[in-house]
Amino acid sequence: MVLAAHAIETPKLLLMSRDERTSEGVANSSDTVGRYLMSHIDQGTRGLTRAPIYPYRGPVVTSAIPEYRDGPFRAEYSAIGTSISNEGWRHLGPQATAIALIKQGFTGQRLKERIAWRTECELTLGSTAETLPDPTNRIVPDETRTDAIGIPRPRIHYRIDEYAKAGLALAMRRHEAIFAALQSTEVETLPMVTSSGTILGTTRMGNDPRNSVVDRDLRAHDHANLFIVGGMVFPTAGMHPPTLTIATLALRTARTIRQGFVDRN
């Protein structure tokens, strides 16, 4: 059996699957299922540059600042990835810019020229911090809140650790220096948010069945015929989405499962 329901539904399903043999849930002899929920913590800064930089063209990210991805500093604060975004001011965008300028009295050709100028100069810098694996950050089924067909919804316990906050504080100082060098105006630091694009942990991989759920081949320690595939097996988060690593692990697990059938025959 292969379970691949991502880092929230996978542990919820395992913890809900209880009987006299698995009173704490399937694959949960370590009491680790649902624990060590991890994400990336994002924070950005936006401003209007003095010279045009032409965002809103090409893919979201074409360049980045790599210096703070690794080093001895990680003993004190998290690794940081900083990207130079092509999304401009994203949730505002040219349409919102046009509405705001019209309210300021711009019309006709003046409005067209002002929209063009602003959208050419809207810069956003985004930084992402890794989070530490914390057993109290976890997913459990919420028996008091069910969905439309009576299945418990997930209850999420999560806090942003001081390690990530310290890394982002450094990143925001770097953002400020960059915008100052660009002689930018309307500079604003955006709120710190938890990324919904990267959700990891909750059925972590490891060699020791006492503190992990699956082995290196993503086979559950407790059940030889159960494989758990996806980002939920990661024991640590890093600070960039691990899409290719997830795919690689899935392919390796598929090879392991296939070899099991070959050996059996």
Give the SSE order as H and E letters. EHEEEHHEEEHEEEH
What would the average pLDDT be, to the nearest integer?
A: 92
Number of structurally distinct domains: 2
- Beta content: 15-25%
Largest sheet: 6 strands, antiparallel
Tally of separate helices: 5
CA(first)-CA(last) distance: 18 Å
Class inferred from helices and paired strands: alpha+beta
The residue ranges in which pLDDT falls below 50 over 5 or more consecutive positions are none
The number of strands is: 10
Radius of gyration: 23 Å
In words, what does this structure look like?
The radius of gyration is 23 Å and the shape is elongated. With 265 residues, the chain is an alpha+beta fold. The mean pLDDT is 92. The chain has 2 domains: 1-36 and 201-265, FAD/NAD(P)-binding domain, CATH 3.50.50; 40-197, no CATH class. The chain has 5 helices and 10 strands. Strands 2, 3, 4, 5, 8 and 9 form a 6-stranded antiparallel sheet that branches. Strands 1-10 form a two-stranded parallel sheet. Strands 6-7 form a two-stranded antiparallel ribbon. The chain has helices spanning 6-16, 93-103, 108-121, 162-181, 243-264, and strands at 2-3, 38-48, 61-65, 80-85, 122-129, 138-146, 152-157, 185-189, 193-200, 227-228. A hairpin with a 5-residue loop joins strand 6 (138-146) and strand 7.
